[in-house]
TrEMBL record:
The gene is motB. Keywords: Cell membrane, Membrane, Transmembrane, Transmembrane helix. The chain crosses the membrane at residues 27-46. It comes from Noviherbaspirillum cavernae. Gene3D superfamilies: OmpA-like domain. This is Motility protein MotB. Residues 163-283 form the OmpA-like domain. GO terms for cellular component: plasma membrane. InterPro entries: Bact_OuterMem_StrucFunc, MotB-like_N_dom, OmpA-like, OmpA-like_sf. It is found in: Cell membrane. Pfam families: MotB_plug, OmpA.
Length: 313
């Protein structure tokens, strides 16, 4: 029993390896890498941010609540690093304001003012061409003895419808045979010459025949001034075409009898027997193509003025 009490006691200790410090270093390294990434990201943002945005960032960190509530640079600015207070609806990207939906691209259409200016320029150029034609005809009348002797019977003027050329009768020199639609030789010569000039212009032509108020003995039932004026207008049309005018240029050929008198004060005045040729401007042409086209009417005062100027030439 005594021997058993003196047996040695052996205590076994397990020695753990102490070559490593566990996984604590991994956490520290991860924190270091994260800090470095944050640092380089901050450096990149500071280097690529405009000066105004930097001021907004600084303002945000000074008073973040104020900036967030009031908005402005650094909070509502869509280009700011820190977005606070929502988008600034007053900021525009190009021509589009924030808060607006993109609309289809507008096509630049001509304004009413530009269209009116273009129309006025076209009318001015057309008027210049008509005045040049008037001058050419007047020069041809003066240069040719066969026409110069009839210059008192040729009245040229510019009206609201265009260039008007009127060939009027004189007491002792009528354009047509008495009560007939037969052209006198000199009248035909005048029309042949005018037809040559008219073909040089692109404008359309209006042609009307007129008589005085002297009635036919047979009255209105058979052959009246209406038929006579229409036949004389057509006889003049054939002479103009023979002179070189393209027939497709004619827009209107009418006989007006004595309805539109040249001299309203004297319906029987020989000057009322006339052929009126109008080189129409664009506006008059468009009006004639529609229902209700108008015909230029000359007043008695204009008649006396034109006859006086014709006699002075």
């Amino acid at each position: 029993m005594a021997e058993e009490g003196q047996r040695p006691i052996v205590v076994k200790k397990i020695k753990k390896g102490g070559g490593h410090h566990g996984g604590a270093w991994k956490i520290a390294y991860a924190d270091f890498v994260t800090a470095m990434m944050a640092f380089f990201l901050l450096m990149w943002l500071l280097g690529s941010t405009a000066k105004g945005d930097l001021q907004g960032i600084a303002e945000y960190f000074k008073t973040p609540l104020k900036v967030a509530m009031a908005g402005g640079s650094g909070s509502g600015d869509s280009s700011s690093v820190l977005q606070g207070g929502g988008r600034d609806l007053t900021r525009k990207d190009g021509q589009l304001q924030n808060g607006e939906e993109a609309s289809p691209r507008r096509v630049n259409m001509p304004t009413a003012a530009s269209m009116q200016a273009a129309q006025a320029e076209l009318e001015r150029m057309e008027l210049a061409r008509l005045k040049a034609l008037k001058q050419r005809i007047e020069e041809a009348i003066e240069a040719r003895p066969a026409l110069k002797q009839f210059r008192k019977q040729l009245l040229l003027d510019i009206t609201t419808e265009g260039l008007r050329i009127q060939i009027v009768d004189e007491q002792n020199r009528p354009m047509f045979a008495l009560a007939k639609a037969e052209l006198q030789p000199y009248t035909r010569e005048i029309l042949l010459e005018i037809g040559h000039f008219l073909n040089d212009m692109p404008n359309r032509i209006s042609l009307s025949g007129h008589t005085d108020a002297t009635p036919y003995a047979s009255g209105e039932k058979y052959y009246s001034n209406w038929e006579l004026s229409a036949d004389r207008a057509n006889a003049s049309r054939r002479a103009l075409v023979a002179g070189g005018m393209d027939e497709v240029k004619l827009l209107r050929v009418v006989g007006l009898s004595s309805a539109v008198l040249f001299d309203k004060e004297d319906p029987f005045n020989p000057v009322n027997r006339r052929i009126s040729i109008i080189v129409m401007n664009k506006k008059a042409e468009e009006s004639a193509l529609k229902d209700g086209g108008t015909i230029e009417v000359t007043s008695g005062a204009q008649v006396r003025q034109e006859l006086g100027s014709a006699s002075a030439r």
